[in-house]
Amino acid sequence: MSSSTSLNDAPVGIFDSGLGGLSILRHVRAQLPHEHLVYVADTGFAPYGDKPEHVVAERSLAVARFLVERGAKAIVVACNTATISAVRLMRDTFPDLPIVGVEPGLKPAAALTRSGKVGVLATERTLAGAKFLQLRDQITQATGAQFLLQPCRGLVDKIELGDTDGTRALLQRYVTPLLDAGADTLVLGCTHYPLVQATIEDVIASAGARDVALVDTGEAVARQLVRLLDAGRLLRPATPGVPARLDAYTSASATALSAAFNSLIGIDPPVHEATFGAG
Ligand code: DGL
What we know:
This protein is an alpha/beta fold.
């Protein structure tokens, strides 16, 4: 086997602070059904969104290192907070590794809005990040769209717990003022939020708002991964008799992550408990 063949066979690493990355993983599996995947849910350290930037950066780097040690040929940072805080550091640390990040979809939202007002739902850490604010300023300058930033403190915790009433109550609190202010487009700027899209739609409907567009960049992130793997000649071809594998790791309970895989995307991969870095 040539070395390039064994690299083609290496897995793609995908990580998030918890379950949010599953909203990206489902697009990756759809677009790249032959790739082996390793998913990390850093649930023991979640949420990332209320922690200082350097803490999120160090932790993200530790998780990336874990994935590299497991032979990852590329990494998807399936977390807006980790991308805003750490993607530059990760690219500096692993300059030869294709790394795909996820950022709130401000550009597609600016193209969609008719009222010129776009609500952005994300973690506090994402919305305070210099990289995010630069992006916001650029797109505002280029398009004139106005972005109403809504930090969603506590929402990731409720989603992680599967607390549907708590999730709905917080969404009501965060989404309604954006609609009242005239937003007709909402950016789901945290990968956990597409997992509760039906509840977001319910909240919008019960506020009496119509034709509100929701922007989720999961599909575009998977497309970017396809492009990078293709450009690096890293794609794994269909291999008869050797189906794509998915292994999952968590810094909390394997049983809880297994249950989440099952209920959110209907699959049952092997889940292992692990520690990442010092924390
Ligand atoms: N899914 C992460 C994101 O996209 C959530 C971060 C958190 O743990 O607070 O931002």
